[in-house]
Design goal:
- One of its GO terms (molecular function) is iron-sulfur cluster binding.
- By secondary structure, the chain is α/β, with parallel strands linked by helices.
- The chain has five domains: 104 residues, Roll (Ubiquitin-like (UB roll)), CATH 3.10.20; 77 residues, Ubiquitin-like (UB roll), CATH 3.10.20.880; 152 residues, Domain of unknown function (DUF4445) (Nucleotidyltransferase, domain 5), CATH 3.30.420.480; 155 residues, 2-Layer Sandwich (Nucleotidyltransferase, domain 5), CATH 3.30.420; 92 residues, no CATH class.
- A six-stranded mixed sheet has the order 14-13-12-15-17-16, with helices on both faces.
- Helix 11 crosses helix 15.
- The radius of gyration is 27 Å and the shape is globular.
């Protein structure tokens, strides 16, 4: 008997089988997917817009045919005619399941929209921007001196600013004459230099004295989220910060899934390039609106990203990054224009600078972290971990810096977790479990109170308690271990062994019940054995990468640990240590650097010399490739235990007494795997 079609939703990762003809909105509701609708499925509100993806998805083990959803219907056609649907979008209430399908729920269709927590970190940056403003008084044209307007602007710059030569693009040249005449031969020009000794390029001109400023964008293009900081190129002040989900997530949550999509689907790389560029255009307009400026004043953008995102941004097929020797098309820094990347929200002549990559799996984002945190100038041995879907790890001091990338996957960001969600109002972000009563208390995004405090219910009434995000699941797993509800192997015990009815049976294993609002129509939030396994895999990859760098350096411990990235800023150092995410160090030696990649991008945006510095530094960093190092697997297996199978974690033991429990024995089917009896 044929199975019902499989429906997979991204970015949540939730999936289920549904009969042919089931509306996508119905499937989403039954799976608890965060898909909005206020009109009751009548095709009026458009809140339930979704984006189906077609082709082969090796990670999910499905092929999505072009007829996986029902044909475009009259309701969708009418809505598109009156209000417009983005290309590739469908209405979830109208599109019906016909076959296996992968469906992305875009941020604007989510009830609980993600809080992209990538605010700019306060930082003193020496201003030496590549793009500057110059006011000049230009000689009027004279029939006896037949020179062009551009040439007379160049003469004025040489006479008044000692700039002997300039160049320009046609798009700028074509606008120069009316600006000169409107300003009465007094104009302000924006000049850009790739290097201190380079010939400046004329990017834009304004009549008279332009006092509206010019701006640049520092963009951290991540696998899951894209964060941008709009920066005043005169003062370095961050005028606005904004972030959106990376729409490429519908092609695969992790980088190798996206490489696989490009390999298995002709034109898949171009599809992903188009998606991310459209998202960047939307982000530019959003951040300009937020700051109240005209996008035409954004004359420069600096990008930092991992190698796969780097290639897909540039429109380069990332297939070579999916197989040894993981060759980049180029690892050097690049200077382009907005026109080159087909970014329509920016002026065509706007300059684009992309930081250099370190290696095939260690990208410009890691270079930006190195620029921000400067491990090569550290007196003590520092381990810097940029935690994300793909973790970048740096280890170094004044003598030597090493770098690697570790495939942690999206579990740390709430994906592939049974009650997981992105960081949004209503998501559990912190949790504590009483070691005596085994009862939980928690805090959700959008409310400063804990769940056992007066006023919590009232303050969370609007958002509800909707799920658990990355920082919450890390704390939950660590708390299960410290409360004695989970053993070092990651197994949750049953109620008879743990003494609490919150440990509920689920198949052959147990789950821990955090919150149950099912009687009121709300969610039932649990931490399952599968959730713990996902976190174990992610944290093992992170620890193994760090350990591999330590082996290469010939050390068994580090002096300090820096957690970078927006996610790293929200991790509790103690819970990270209990989990075994990072090597054992004194707790006061674990600090957060905030969004260090974004900070590095801002430094490169505001300081031309910093670009030359990081281009030099990356050539001196020792690259370690985790994919081909035999010891990586050995470290990975040992790190599966919580906190670790062989590392004694002496500093952690000074702070926490982890219960000596084991739930992997006895005859209870649901308590774990049975041991085979010897013959």
């Amino acid at each position: 008997m044929a199975q019902d079609p499989l429906v997979i939703f991204t970015p949540s990762g939730k999936r289920g089988r549904f009969p042919v003809g089931t509306p996508v909105l119905t499937a989403a509701r039954q799976l608890g997917v965060d898909l909005d609708s206020v009109c009751g499925g009548r095709g009026i509100c458009s809140k339930c817009q979704i984006t189906p993806s077609y082709g082969d998805f090796s990670k999910h083990g499905v092929h999505v045919a072009q007829d996986a959803l029902s044909d475009w219907n009259a309701v969708e056609a009418r809505y598109d005619e009156k209000r417009g649907l983005k290309s590739g979008r469908r209405l979830g209430c109208q599109a019906a399941v016909q076959g296996d399908v992968v469906i992305d729920v875009p941020p604007e269709s989510q009830v609980h929209r993600q809080v992209v927590r990538k605010a700019a970190t306060a930082r003193v940056i020496e201003m030496d921007p590549a793009t500057r403003l110059y006011y000049v008084e230009v000689q009027e044209p004279d029939m006896h001196e037949p020179t062009g307007d551009l040439e007379r602007v160049a003469r004025a710059l040489e006479a008044q600013w000692d700039i002997p030569e300039i160049s320009t693009e046609f798009s700028t040249l074509s606008k120069l004459q009316p600006v000169l005449r409107k300003g009465g031969w007094e104009i302000t020009v924006a000049l850009h230099k790739d290097d201190h000794d380079a010939v400046p390029r004329l990017l834009a001109a304004w009549p008279g004295l332009h006092e509206g400023g010019i701006y640049g964008l520092a963009i951290d293009l991540g696998s899951t989220t894209i964060a941008a900081h709009l920066t005043d190129l005169d003062t370095g002040e961050v005028k606005a910060s904004s972030g959106i989900m990376n729409p490429q997530i519908r092609f695969g949550e992790d980088l190798m899934s996206r490489v696989s999509y490009a390999m298995m689907n002709p034109g898949g790389d171009a599809e992903m390039t188009r998606a991310v560029r459209e998202a960047l255009d939307a982000l530019v307009l959003e951040i300009a609106t937020e700051a109240g400026i005209d996008p035409s004043l954004i004359l420069e953008t600096v990008f930092v990203c991992n190698p796969v995102m780097h290639h897909l941004l540039l429109g380069i097929d990332p297939v070579e990054l999916g197989q040894a020797p993981f060759a980049l098309a180029t690892s050097d820094a690049m200077t382009l224009t907005a026109r080159d990347l087909d970014l329509k929200a920016l002026p065509p002549s706007a300059q684009i600078y992309i930081l250099p990559c370190i290696a095939g799996h260690v990208g410009a984002d890691a270079a930006a972290v190195a620029l921000s945190e400067e491990p090569g100038k550290s007196n003590d041995l520092a381990l810097i971990v940029d935690v994300g879907t793909n973790a970048e790890i740096l280890l170094g001091d004044k003598s030597r810096v090493l770098a690697c990338s570790s495939p942690t996957g999206p579990a740390f960001e709430g994906a592939q977790i049974s009650s997981g969600q992105r960081a949004a109002p209503g998501a559990i972000e912190a949790i504590r479990i009483d070691p005596v009563t085994k009862e939980p208390r928690f805090r959700v995004i959008g409310c400063d109170k804990w769940s056992d405090e007066d006023g919590f219910a009232e303050e969370t009434a609007a958002s509800g308690i909707t799920g658990i995000c990355g920082s919450g699941i890390i704390e939950a797993v660590a708390e299960l271990r410290t409360a004695g509800l989970m053993d070092p192997s990651g197994l949750i015990g049953g109620p008879d062994k743990t003494g609490t009815e919150r440990c509920i049976p689920e198949g052959r294993t147990f789950s821990y019940l955090v919150h149950d609002a099912s009687e009121d129509g709300g969610p039932r939030i649990t931490v399952t054995q599968g959730d713990i396994r996902a976190i174990q895999l992610a944290k093992s990859a992170l620890y193994a990468g760090a350990r591999l760098l330590m082996d290469t350096r010939g050390v068994d411990k580090v002096d300090r640990v820096v957690l970078a990235g927006a996610f790293g800023a929200h991790i509790s150092p103690l819970h990270a240590m209990v989990l075994g995410m990072i090597p054992d160090v004194p707790l006061d030696k674990v600090t957060s650097a905030g969004n260090a990649a974004g900070t590095g991008a801002r430094i490169a945006l505001c300081n031309l010399a910093a670009r030359r510095e990081i281009e030099r530094v990356v050539r001196e960093i020792t690259k370690v490739e985790t994919a081909i190092e035999p010891k990586f697997q050995e470290h990975f297996v040992a790190a599966n235990a919580i906190p670790h199978a062989t590392d004694p974690f002496p500093e952690l033991k000074k702070l926490v007494n982890l219960p000596d429990v084991s739930f992997n024995s006895g005859g209870d089917d649901r308590g774990g795997r049975r041991r085979r009896k010897r013959a």
